Amino acid sequence: MMITAYHGTSKMNAKQILEKGFRIKRDEKLYPNDLGHGIYGYVDSDTESGDTYLMQSAKESASLFAKQIRKIDEKHVAILRMDIEIDRTEYLDLNEVENRNHVVRLYQEVLADLLIDIRVKYAVNRSSRRKQMDGVVLEKLNQDGLMDLPEVIIKDTYTRFSGILSNFTNGREIVIRDPKVIKAIRLLNV
């Protein structure tokens, strides 16, 4: 299965990624991002086939993420297009009800223990200050052998780009847990 994703970053980081590839930090003391440790990007929905409408395209979400979340000046923003090839067995779509329900049931099993451990285990960083627990829970489920996390996870999310809150998703995030599935990376004109 082929997926196209967009990653927003600085021009300096983009140059390093194009030269050396992506690196994934898996330090056990590093508080995970929303879907766990990995390379993040945005994927477009397929509304023609009845898929969810999102507030903006994946490329626009990547750009907004770089500018408004990472605080990169517009003239220094770079958007990378990633062509990803994955086996369906190495893909978890958390928008599918069966997958979501399975994760939520497991989430309930480990959450109480995690709330006790979290203050001791993780160093304070940008992700921990947001108090977003989903990535922490996913990493715990994987670590404890309750769930084998695949190479790629996808979930419709809401990112607070403009400081406005909403209950409607505005992007489809992808986390790539294994960079070998990225078959091509190209720098796009912004």
Overall description:
With 190 residues, this protein is an alpha+beta fold. The longest helix has 25 residues, at 97-121. It has five helices and seven strands. The strands form two sheets. It has a four-stranded mixed sheet with strand order 2-6-5-4. A three-stranded antiparallel sheet has the order 1-3-7.
Major β-sheet profile: 4 strands, mixed
Number of strands: 7
Provide the spatial order of strands within the biggest beta sheet.
2-6-5-4
Portion of residues in beta strands equals 15-25%
**Rg calc:** 16 Å
Low-confidence stretches: none
Q: Between the first and last Cα atoms, what is the distance in angstroms? A: 27 Å
Helix content: 25-40%
Which secondary-structure class do the elements indicate?
A: alpha+beta
Average the pLDDT over all residues and give the rounded result: 89
**SSE arrangement, N to C:** EHEHEEHHHEEE
Tally the helices: 5
**Outline:** globular
State the main characteristics.
190 residues; four-stranded mixed sheet; alpha+beta; 7 strands; globular; 5 helices; three-stranded antiparallel sheet
Topology:
Blueprint: E1 2-10, H1 11-20, E2 39-42, H2 58-69, E3 77-85, E4 91-93, H3 97-121, H4 126-130, H5 134-143, E5 152-157, E6 171-176, E7 182-188
Helix pairs in contact: 3-5
Quick structural summary:
The protein has 190 residues and is of the alpha+beta class.
